[in-house]
Amino acid sequence: MDTMRDRFAPVVSRLLDEDPRVAVVLAEIGADGFRETGRRHPDRVINVGIREQLLIGTAAGLALTGLRPVVHTFASFLVERPFEQVKLDLGHQDAGAVLVSAAASFDWPAGGFTHMAPGDVALLDTLDGWTVHVPGHPDEAETLLRHAVAAGEDKVYVRLSVQSNRQGRAVDGGHFHTVHEGRSGVVVAVGPMLDAVLAATRGLDVTVLYATTVRPFDVAGLRRATAAAGPDVVLVEPYLAGTSTAAVSEALSDVPHRVLGLGVGRRELRRYGTIEEHVAAHGLDPAALRGRITGYLAAGRTTALTTGG
Predict the structure, then answer these.
(1) Does the domain made of 177-306 have the CATH classification 3.90.1750.20?
(2) Is the distance from CB of 236 to CB of 190 less than 8 angstroms?
(3) Which residue in 18, 51, 99, 221 has the most C-beta neighbors within 10 A?
(4) For residue 68, is pLDDT > 70?
C-alpha cells in the first residue's frame, strides 16, 4: 500500500492544475515530487531551500496576495523550528495556509530526535484558529488535503504519517465517527491509532470513536457518545500524551467525568530503533493499550461502587 505522503504530491499537483489560487512552498524536502508540476506552474511551485523560517514567511506573503499556499516539510521543521513565523507571519497577520507535515512523531527513527515532533499538535494548540487533521489512511489523507485547500482562508495543519490503519474510512473533515458502540466508557482513537485501539478493545463493552479532525474538537459527537456509554473517556493519540485532554474536559465541563490521555510520552528515547519499537516503548501497541484501558475503566467502576455512584 502506498503511504499518505505518496499521495501528497499527486493530489496537490492536480489541485495546482485545477485552481489558479493554489501554490506550493517547499524547503527542499519533497521537491522531487513537483518537478513536472513546477514546469507547468513555475510561478506557483516555490522551493526556498533549507530555510524553514523563510518557508513560512513566503507562504504568508503568498496568502496576503490572495493565493492558497500549501507548505510541506517534516513536522519538526514545519511547526517547531519556524514556530515564531507560524505565530506571527500566519497567525498575527491572519494569513491562511495549509501546513502539511511528514515524519510525524517518530516515523523516521534513523533521523534522530531532530526529525521527531510528538509535540507538534500541542504546540499549535497555543495558537488561535487552527484546524488540525490527522488522517489514519492514505485515502483519508487525500480527502482531508482537498478539504484543507478548499477551506477558504483558514489556517490548517494536515499531519501525515507512514503509520496507517489497514482500511480507509469516510471522513468529512469535522466529525468523529462511531466505529463500535458499548456501555462502559468511550475510547477516542485518533488517526493511525484506530487499528491498535480496535485490537486492544476487542470484546470490551466500550464505544470507540474515530477522530481524524481534532481541532476543532467534535464536542457534540463526544457528548452523544458519553451520554450513552458513560463519562469515562480514554484518548489514544499518535502524538504527545494528553494533548486533547483539556478539550475533553471542556466538552464535558457540566457533567462529572474522567479522562485518560494515552500517546507519546515526554521521555526522550535515545536508542532510536524502529517505528515498532517506539510504539511499544510508548505503550501504544494493542497489548499495552488493552492493559491501560481496562485498568483505567476498572478503577472507575471501583470508585463508583465505593462512593455509591
Answers:
(1) no
(2) yes
(3) 99
(4) yes
What 3-state DSSP class applies to 174? coil
| Domain positions in the chain | 4-159, 177-306
Residues 130 and 157 sit within 8 Å (Cβ to Cβ): yes
Beta strands in 135-287 (DSSP E): 155-159, 177-180, 186-190, 207-211, 213-215, 232-240, 258-264
Answer yes or no: are the C-beta atoms of 157 and 132 closer than 8 Å. Answer: yes
Measured distance CA(200)–CA(266) in Å, rounded: 23
pLDDT in tens, 214-232: 999 999 999 999 999 999 9
Residue count (the chain): 309
Q: Tell me if 4-159 shares its fold with 177-306.
A: yes
CATH code 3.40.50.970 for 4-159: yes
Query: Exposed e or buried b for every residue in 24-41, given b needs 16+ CB within 10 A?
Result: bbbbebbbebbeebbeeb
The pTM (predicted TM-score) of the whole model is: 0.95
Q: List the Cα angle 60/61/63 in 5-degree steps.
A: 65
